[in-house]
Amino acid sequence: MTKIRLILISLIVFSVTVYAERTRLRPGQNGYTPQQDVELGREVAKEAEKQLELINIGNANAYIGALGQQLVSKAPNEFKFPFYFKIVNDRSINAFALPGGPIYIHRGAIESADNEAQLAGVIGHEIGHVILRHGTNQATKAERTQGILGIVGAVLGDGAAGQIATVGGGFLANSVLLKYSRNAETESDLMGTQILYDLGYQPKAMAEFFEKLAKEQKGSRAAEFFSNHPIPENRVTKVNAEISKLGPLPPAPRTDSPDFQEVKRMMLSLPEPVKRDPKTAPPANTGNAKPPAAPAARTIEFSGVGIRLRHPENWKSSVEGTTAAIAPDGGVINGNLAYGLLINVFKPQNARDLDQATTQLLNELKRGNPSMQTVRSRVQTRVDGRPALMAELLNDSPAGGQESDFVITVSRSSSEVLYFVLVAPSKELAPYRNAFNQIMDSVRLGR
Ligand SMILES: [Zn+2]
Predict the structure, then answer these.
(1) In angstroms, how far is the first alpha carbon of the chain from the final one?
(2) CB 446 within 8 A of CB 308
(3) What does the pLDDT look like over 356-387, one tens digit per residue?
(4) Rounded to the nearest 5 degrees, what angle is found at the Cα of 439, between the Cα atoms of 437 and 440?
(5) What is the distance in A from the centroid of ligand 1 to the CA of 96?
(6) Cα-to-centroid distance, 306 and ligand 1 (Å)
(7) CA of 257 to the centre of ligand 1 (A)
(8) Position with higher pLDDT, 371 vs 185
(9) Which residue pairs, CB below 8 angstroms and at least 24 apart, start in 389-395?
(10) How far, in Å, is the centroid of ligand 1 from the Cα of 75?
């Protein structure tokens, strides 16, 4: 009797200790709300789809949609992101996800997967990027470390979504939303592996596929994938460690399906897509682009981010969270504000007064803009009658040459400073200086 009981106990202990808990994955720090992820992703998707050739074959679309939604059903989708899946007629081996749910799978990824589990692994990995909000997490970090000016494109409306999509002439490749860190890659690997396991797929399939791609990478069709998804260190080791925590493998894990093989054949039999050479494609906007029209004398009202002001009627405004950008057409070059105005909120750390808060803000701007120089470090001024400070800086202009930046700060509460950055190329400053003065005179704080 005693002996039997002992065996039972040891069995129980054994089964408890073999499987450690799976890695808990949570989104990192993020200045965007989940709803903003959805909105931003939608805008960028709209722009992206103008440049992508999508494949519209009923069976293939239905297959990829159904597979994607099955994978989503096992993902911890606590924000209920509205996922959708589309096939891109591009033979490079790639897939990418936009914030809030749009996922694009290149035809080349389907063609090069050996089986359904590998394709499911790629999609699971992309789902991980969305759930863990890596795109906007990256944008949040970029705002903090590269300086707010650098990613102004991310907060502008439609036009800027296009800017994000085409930065550097390479489609989406340089978008801050797709510049994942190696750590983010590992997180997505683990989430993708967990999803595969929970759906009964061979969980090794994802890491295996990425390994296969990495081996073939040199000059290959997979290079694009790795430019957006940098290869994490010890990928396979980390994935295997996760698999060992997940529990026993089903006796016959899902690896393939006739449907997958049929869709793969379908892709392979399609004609070659029309070649789009990124080098010959016109760049989104270059330093030689035509400068924007001069600021109109007539003004229109802007109301948002807790203030009102009037700006030239040929400028457009857009708001994302606490940030507003107001710029003429062509005022944003490669995602950087070259002409116009940015309004945002800065939260200083333990600043005694506006002066200290402004110092912190300027340091932060300079950290992200190493060529920024101070022309005038502090001038007292007023915004809507309240004491304010203005600094004048020089920086490299995205339009070429130098730009003048005027940074104006005013206290909004004991812990928040509202700031305005007015930007124009130094050699074209005269008409903008007038516009900037008129804008700042028109500012009314409070709703
Ligand atoms: Zn990735």
Answers:
(1) 79
(2) no
(3) 999 988 888 877 677 888 888 888 889 999 99
(4) 65
(5) 8
(6) 37
(7) 25
(8) 185
(9) 389/354, 389/355, 389/358, 391/358, 391/362, 393/362, 393/365, 394/426, 395/149, 395/369, 395/371
(10) 16
